[in-house]
Specification:
Chain A: It holds the Pfam family FAD_binding_3. The structure holds two protein chains of two kinds. Chain A is α+β, with helices and mostly antiparallel strands. Chain A has helices at 2-12, 49-57, 104-115, 139-145, 179-183, 239-247, 250-262, 331-351, 359-388, 393-408, 410-420; strands at residues 21-24, 44-47, 70-72, 74-79, 85-89, 99-103, 122-125, 130-134, 155-159, 164-167, 170-172, 188-204, 210-216, 219-225, 231-237, 288-290, 297-306, 310-311, 314-316, 322-323. Chain A has a domain at 40-103 and 193-301 and 393-420: D-Amino Acid Oxidase, subunit A, domain 2 (D-Amino Acid Oxidase, Chain A, domain 2). Helix content of chain A is 34%, strand content 25%. In chain A, strands 4, 5, 12, 13, 14, 15, 16, 17 and 20 form a nine-stranded mixed β-sheet that branches. A three-stranded antiparallel β-sheet of chain A has the order 2-6-3. A three-stranded antiparallel β-sheet of chain A has the order 8-9-10. The longest helix of chain B has 21 residues, at 34-54. Chain B starts with 12 loop residues before the first helix and ends in a 6-residue tail after the last strand. Classes of the chains: A alpha+beta, B alpha/beta. Chain A binds chain B through residues 14-15, 18, 136, 139-140, 143, 149-154, 166, 168, 312, 348, 350-355, 358-361, 364, and chain B through 24, 27-31, 34, 37-38, 40-41, 44-45, 48, 59-62, 82-87, 106-112, 114, 232.
Amino acid sequence: MVGAAFAALLAANPLTAALRVLMLDRAPPPEALGPLPPVPGLRVSTLTPASVRLIERAGAWRDVAPPHSAAFKTMQVWDSSGSGCVRYSAAEAGEPVMGHVAENDLLQAALLRQLRQPGAGVELLWPAQLEGLHLPKPFSELQRDGGGAAPGALAELGLSGGRRLRARLVVGADGPRSHVRQLADLRTFGWAYGQRGLVATVRPEVANTCAWQRFLPHGPLALLPVRNGYANIVWTTTPRHAAELEAASPEAFADAVNEALQGAPTPARNFFLPAAAAESEFRRPPLVRPASGRGPKSFPLALRASGRYVRSRLALIGDAAHAVHPLAGQGVNLGLADAGALADALAYAVTTGQDVGDEGMLEGAYEAPRQAANGAMLAALDGLKRVFEPQSGLLSGLRGLGLDALNAVPGAKQRIVRYAMGV
Amino acid sequence: MLSRSAAGPSIVDREVTKFGDVAAEWWDPRGSFKPLHALNPVRVAFIRDALCEGFGREAARVAPLAGLSILDVGCGGGILAEALARLGANVTGADASADSIAVARAHAAGDPSLHVTYRDATAEQLVAEGAQYDAVVASEVIEHVADAAAFMRALGALAWPGGMVAVSTLARTPRSYALAIIGAEYIISLVPRGTHDWSRFINPEELTMLGNEAGLALDRMAGMSYNPLTGRWRRSDDTGTD
């Protein structure tokens, strides 16, 4: 999806539209944009207003906007230990909505539709398997080896079936286990969290335009509005609990969600802090019912990031550069921001006569700003995860106090809202 | 590595050898010429805007210099010449160092769609051949020549009547001394030690005067400032440095 967004952004800018772009994919494309199924799919993304603007720039937003996706205007985060609640609203960040929840398949199909427009200048090739990638050697190695390809040489790609290609720039947008990254020999760092993220679709009993997130002893549970009046559950928990939930009947799963979201105690007002405004006070989330369709599905949580995002004639974007656990649903937003930054870097290169695969240009105009932004988000998500993981009395009391303090201090809260919304 | 000395009244042999010795490093993104690579987009944008205005073209488009013939005098490894070629110009790069020209040719050969003509020649040799271009560019060169006035006359003769000449240089002002000599060369190793000789730097007034003597009218002048913390250059209206 991030790769399709990148190609669509290039096609939408007159400065980069003339670049010849070939998009390779191992898998055949999803079905062309058609009528959506009545029950939304399990894999969804929470799009910040900043991401929506990028999708607009790529020309694909009209196919993703509500009613094809769902908007939420408020967010409530509270703690199961009984103290601590914070409510955010879009108005506090000066935006009409806080975010949109859209199915990943829909996003992909909407972006591909732009790439298939006549004159988009993008050639689509699938199924295609990249078997070899030869990048120009770093200058220091050229000197040592005394020869070989010139430093200005193009990247060479070998595909299954024997086709060979040359490119000024290879962009790896092939996910957390990026094959391009492995072929380019870029090292990664990361760790697993020993937990699983479970996703499911349920039906709230009343109309809902709030994103709910409750911190439970094993991890957070989020309930997000999706299209057609449904809600998406993202539940971080232990592998054993995830397996139990996956095996549960639809009714038993809905009961488990209701128990987890509604269970006592209700957050009490913290008298050490000034009272929060009335619209910031705790509200009870809606009860949910089972939805027909696929049952819950879980996947392991891990953080993995590449030390470098670029080499000469290579750039990694999205999960190929940094995979984050889905605690705050930020993966797609970071990926789209990468795609936007790299598309802008190439437009800058075109107007100043720079090679679009030049390592120095890629470093300065793409890698440095994105590594700083992604690093901050990775650290924030990892820190949030670690604070909320252990359920000791002292820590939960501290974080309860922290949430209450956040809720009562408009300036700090607004900064966090704006940060989370990418504005 | 020794470079052959090139004939020509405006050339200082020692200066040619100096660049010949480091020619292999022209395209090393982390090497001696790193600041030149960082500076390049800014100077390209300045030259692009000046030429587009002079020749009545739209600058904010693909290949804005399409069809213009440009001579890059003292092109070194081709850092500026390649960029101007990507903007659509028919570029000839000339340098008195045969080693630099060999590096420039080898680098451009890596990209099949990049077409730059390279000449192992001095400005005076090209004048003798009667060559003329829509625009003549000499970037960070005039401070290395022995007779700046003769060099400027040669640049003027290489442009068609009505053509343009763009000269950029590190200026000889107290601030540029701090930035380009002490700051640039010895403290932050901006360019290889010994590439710039302080007495050869030229200040903006001298450049204007030399241009006038060579029959060239000043069209515009701009400065560039270097931020040693970020390693970035940016355009400034202050012509104290470049």
